[in-house]
Amino acid sequence: xxxxxxxxxxxxxxxxxxxxxxxWDTDEKGLGIRITAAGHRxxxxxxxxxxxxxRLTLGEFPALGLTAAREMAxxxxxxxxxxxxxxxEKAAARNVPTLGSTIAEYLxxxxxxxxxxxxxxxxxxxxxRYLELHWQPLHAMRLAEVSRRDIKDRLDxxxxxxxxxxxxxxRAALLLMLNWAVSEERIAANPVALTKPYDERRRGPDGEAIxxxxxxxxxxxxLLWRATxxxxxYGAIIRLLLLTGQRREEVAGMRWSExxxxxxxxxxxxxxxxxxxxxxxxxxxxxxxxLHGVQRRPSRDLLFGEGKGGFSGWSQAKDRLDARIAAxxxxxxxxxxxxxxxxTAHALAPWRLHDLRRTVVTGMAEIGVQPxxxxxxxxxxxxxxxxxxxVYNRATYAAEKRVALQRWTEHVMSIVAGEPAKVVPxxxxxx
Length: 431
Fold this sequence. Notes:
Layout: H1 7-12, E1 20-24, E2 31-36, E3 41-49, E4 52-60, H2 66-81, H3 86-94, H4 99-112, H5 121-134, H6 148-162, H7 164-183, H8 218-227, H9 233-244, H10 248-252, E5 259-260, E6 265-268, E7 279-282, H11 285-292, H12 314-332, H13 340-345, H14 354-366, H15 371-378, H16 398-417, H17 426-429
Antiparallel strand pairs: 1-2, 2-3, 3-4, 5-6, 6-7
């Protein structure tokens, strides 16, 4: 029979052997506390709407306290008196499309080819990453309530955390998805269309755009290597980029299932390469040392990053790296405690991660690696690999690629050590 509920009584309730039972409150008519066989306690409200008794769950105890539950019960009963049905409204709210549910429907349609042109597997993977991962903080919002301000705030955070390119790609993916939602009359207008993409051109300290032919000098290579000595994903990625010449997203999304450390080989599936071709990357001695130092995490195939995707937070990590390099250059110039002005004066000329790939290509050419081997190393289908040459089996240059990458690694290590490069072909090393 009903009794006055108290926090002490609620905590002392014994769970039933099966199912659940409800104790009703005498202080607030219709309010009860339900306890399950597993011991979970939740407040419920009993009321009548359209001649039918309904029971609405208000919240779990103790997250929802007794005083707050009584106040909530009074508010809901007031709504019922005015003709509302809180339980029906709650059920209807669950069926209101959110940004997340619309994204899921859109991606399923793109994958099946029922929405727009069927995408290549790699393009679908990229679109899924941008829509599911980058826009995840807005997924719970009702589709019709997502505003330009919501979009702009999220884009600004993406630019600060993942970089300008990632922000622009995320914007483009959402723009396309919401254009479809407009065409389906899910929303009246596309809020992304009211935003502008970020300028992706690199700029120097004076604000002027700079060219895209940048590659690092030997002194800069040494500074970069020493600045990435501390443990962490970003430092390992930087060094692997410099040693392998592969693309940023390929290294950042590296998976244990792609690696055969015993054979010193990294095999990229076609879904993860820009040109859609499977690509084998021989691993040099130094690259293997880096990979052996990465800690394996249970149930996670990705080496770097956290959550669903690979490494993120590029802009902030690079800012910290640039600051360490500037500090090292300032100390080398005799400034023991460099201030902001000194750090600015001793910063490297503006550079970006893609410059490491260009550095590898340029450096390999300088130490005598043949152009067709360099293109095979970086999986670049043009020039020597275009046309008929492109039909060669991917294993044709396997040995040459391995020698080239080991020679390049030894060249980098000689730069770091401040010694002349000592190039020893792998055939001699393994003889």
